[in-house]
Amino acid sequence: MSAVRRGAVHRVLLALVGLVLLAAGGAVLAVGLGAPPPHWWVHSGPHDVLLSSAERTHWREAGWWWPAVLGVLAVLLLLALWWLTSTLRPRRLAEIRIDTGDGGSALLRGRALESVLAADTALQAGVAHTELLLTGRRTAPVVRAWLQLEPHVDPATALTEFTAQALTHAREAAGLPVLPADVRLREVKHGAERVT
């Protein structure tokens, strides 16, 4: 399943879950505020409880009941958190479609462009470490870059140099009209220097 299709499936599933929760919550709120419940509703009115005393104590003697309920809820929570993180995590672009100029197109591996861009950035003065990720669509890639700068480097100068050199070289080498970038800069941690 492609990243675009997977993203569409995630959005549809999230929308359906949201609509079901919104409808259920709205119905509970309406009945709680005094609206007459429909004939198929599980509760008879605003003073009805979610679980009756008999329903709450029905499985009390069974030692497996509450651990099973808590286990199922914990698994559901972990699955929901996994789904959320997988949906929010940026997807690495596998390949880029490049217009060859003769009416055709060619495919460039995303990791190849990432490695060339990382090697070019590593040559930049004052950059101690770099991490790059190519996201976006095959026809419109976006660079996400994290640059660790040496303490003496001016961030504005480092950003200008990255944009003018490494990013421009990558854009021209791939034949892309534009190559937007989200660049995060941070300083290398270093110990305090002794002043004498």
Structure description:
- With 196 residues, this protein is α+β, with helices and mostly antiparallel strands.
- It has two domains: 1-50, no CATH class; 95-187, Alpha-Beta Plaits (2-Layer Sandwich), CATH 3.30.70.1350.
- It contains five helices and five strands.
- Strands 3-4-5 form a three-stranded mixed β-sheet, covered by helices on one side. Strands 1-2 form a two-stranded antiparallel sheet.
- β4 (140-149), α5 and β5 (181-187) form a beta-alpha-beta unit.
- α4 (110-122) packs antiparallel against α5 (155-174).
Task: Give structural attributes.
2 domains, 196 residues, 3-stranded mixed sheet, alpha+beta
Quick structural overview:
The protein has helices spanning about 5-30, 55, 65-90, 110-120, 155-175, and strands at about 95-100, 105-110, 125-135, 140-150, 180-185.
